[in-house]
Amino acid sequence: MREIKICTIGLGYIGLPLSIKLSKKFNVIGYDIDFKRVKELKNNCDCTNEVSKKELIKSKILFSNKVTDIINCNFFIITVPTPVTKSKKPDLGSLINATRMLGKILKKNDVVVYESTTFPGCTDEICIPLLEKISKLKINKDFWCGFSPERMNPGDKINKLSKINKIISSTNTEGLNKIDKIYKNITSKKIIKVSSIKIAESAKIIENIQRDINIALMNELSMLFNVMNIDFTKVLKAASTKWNFLNFKPGIVGGHCISVDPYYLADKARKVNFKTNLILSGREINDHMSNYISKKFIQIFNKKNLPNKRILIIGTTFKENVPDTRNSQSIKIINKLNKNNFKISTFDPIKNIDLKNVNNIKNFNMLSKYQNYFSGILILVPHDAIKKKGSIYYEKLLKKNNVFFDIKNIFDKKNIDFKL
């Protein structure tokens, strides 16, 4: 029996933890085209904060951006980003480039597993034909291919890779068994075998769409109850006492999964002449939240007729405890307020941003120098480090008759001007 040599292609939030876990049982090479990322990992540092320095030092993974280093691998896992374009269309550029690269080195008896989220049919209709064309090999005869939807939740220290159910699929039973032999070493939970790649792709995409729609419903309800001057946080607290109430919360939705995946399925629906009514409605509501919050802030700020427009925005990443700003609604809010001539400072204990006309305050010590300085504060992303300081710490930064937005209602402060 040949020795298994695994290559993970893409070393982000999905590929790196997967590489670490697999390296405990197999020889693993982590490949990424980003030289800076590879160099960082070779120095035992992970800027995503998903893997500790200790884990990187302990692992025996070879990190590389050279194709020559992965030629002898025989089990490939592709975990590259699948974003959308500016016009909200699927951007398969990274996925296709990774597939082309792999097709050039694919050998007989190799196995390829895709984990990158995409629309149903992408693996069968685009990726496999491309692998066959470039490699001159035939699926199910010369090599095998499968799809296993990633279920990583950045920043989540409980539902980690080793503690979640994992779905696997393949083009035939033989391929499925080969994938199962590897993937059963990833998690202590269940390995769920499904009958086709399209089912696995579909399962992944609806997981995120369901969450997006539920958050959109809460956001719309929050806006409605705000108009009726009813405290929506108290409404939710009361409603959640029913046994089957789904306790979703309103909020700003960004990142590279929930805010992207609905567009992939909607695009596929258009191609099969099916009109979706609900999927993109939820996306429209959640995309609108940055506008809604910005307008609310401007409205309340102008009513108070404050002497200056110095404001502080706290939390700029797309979610709490994660150093990722992709599709961050906080940055959208910053840009909107910038256009209204506010003098903006930002603070995020996890990730510094680089935006024009923004004073980037880098740590709590710097922040404490701004006492009695700002006319308004917006707490948008409640990182744990932000919560620990408590509301009094931030209130000291404010002038009298200030505007205080705590959209997630993380502090027990009486004079909060706005919360979702």
Key terms:
2 domains, alpha/beta, Rossmann fold, 8-stranded mixed β-sheet, 5-stranded parallel β-sheet, 13 strands, 420 residues
Write the layout of secondary structure elements.
Elements lengths: L4 E5 L5 H8 L4 E5 L3 H8 L10 H6 L3 E3 L10 E4 L14 H13 L5 E4 L7 H14 L8 E4 L18 E5 L2 H11 L7 E3 L3 H31 L4 H8 L21 H11 L7 H26 L5 E5 L14 H10 L4 E5 L10 E4 L2 H4 L6 E6 L4 H6 L1 H5 L2 E9 L14
Parallel strand pairs: 1-2, 1-4, 2-3, 4-5, 5-6, 7-8, 9-10, 9-12, 10-11, 12-13
Antiparallel strand pairs: 6-7
Helix pairs in contact: 4-5, 7-9, 7-10, 10-11
Written account of the structure:
The protein is α/β, with parallel strands linked by helices and 420 residues long. The chain folds into 2 domains: 5-195, NAD(P)-binding Rossmann-like Domain (Rossmann fold); 196-420, NAD(P)-binding Rossmann-like Domain (Rossmann fold, 3-Layer(aba) Sandwich), CATH 3.40.50. 38% of the residues lie in helices and 15% in strands. The protein is built from 14 helices and 13 strands. It has helices spanning 15-22, 35-42, 53-58, 93-105, 122-135, 173-183, 197-227, 232-239, 261-271, 279-304, 329-338, 364-367, 384-389, 391-395; strands at residues 5-9, 27-31, 62-64, 75-78, 111-114, 144-147, 166-170, 191-193, 310-314, 343-347, 358-361, 374-379, 398-406. Strands 3-2-1-4-5-6-7-8 form an 8-stranded mixed β-sheet, with helices on both faces. Strands 11-10-9-12-13 form a 5-stranded parallel β-sheet. Helix 7 (197-227) crosses helix 9 and helix 10 (279-304) crosses helix 11 (329-338). The termini are far apart.
